[in-house]
Amino acid sequence: MAYIDLMSVIHKSTTRDYLARVNDPDYPKAKAALLAKQWGFDYWDGDRKICYGGYRYMEGRWEKVARAMVEQYGIKPGDRILDVGCGKGFLLYDFTKVVPDLEIHGIDISEYAIANAKEEVRDRLQLGNATSLPFPDGHFDFVFSITTLHNLHCYDLDKALREIERVGKKDKYICVESYRTEEEKANLLYWQVTCEAFNTPEEWDWWFKHTGYTGDHSLIYFE
Q1: Does 37 map to a domain?
Q2: What are phi and psi of 30, to 5 degrees?
Q3: How confident is the model over 190-213, as pLDDT tens digits?
Q4: Which pairing describes strands 140-146 and 80-84: parallel, antiparallel, or unpaired?
Q5: How many domains in the chain?
Q6: CB-based burial of residue 155 (10 Å sphere; 0-12 exposed, 13-18 middle, 19+ buried)?
Q7: 192: closest CA among 50, 11, 45, 3?
Q8: Domain with 108 in it: what CATH number?
Q9: At what angle do helices 154-167 and 201-211 cross, to 10 degrees?
């Protein structure tokens, strides 16, 4: 298991006003979180004060992440990959641009996201929960989960990590939110609307060891 940063290029491209988000008069933090946790229109395509404010495909944005994963893990045509928390499938679509003839699969808890997914990959996505992946043991050459697992309570986080380990026969990669300082902790609390697992890097390491997760990971911080 190694720490491999494949997500900073995306995460650090966004400018955030933490205080404005938590104190917004129309969507104060508690209201925004309540709407976001329905995982529907408001979360993906509603007001930016709630969450994404319009989660649309942007040419090349996710391709750089897909390319980094392909190079890191030697992903090749014919490999079978799974995105746990695939959302609208943008990253999976960009995988198919980088490596032709991949067998791609995505799973997400949001019916809205799948219904509004990238048309080219929509038939490869399915509704489901990270805590119970509907695939056989060792089914995938590569399993990844980007900014998803921190949205689970501890009892479900335990199940999800074990499930990712179970269905992956080779490489695995997880990216989750974390904090190293009190300032980063406050920023995370102010900005997030769906996070349930607030863990330091040391606590994430504990979770990985506790569940037998053997893949790689990276952490994103709200600096």
Answers
A1: no
A2: -65, -40
A3: 999 999 999 999 999 999 999 999
A4: parallel
A5: 1
A6: exposed
A7: 50
A8: 3.40.50.150
A9: 60
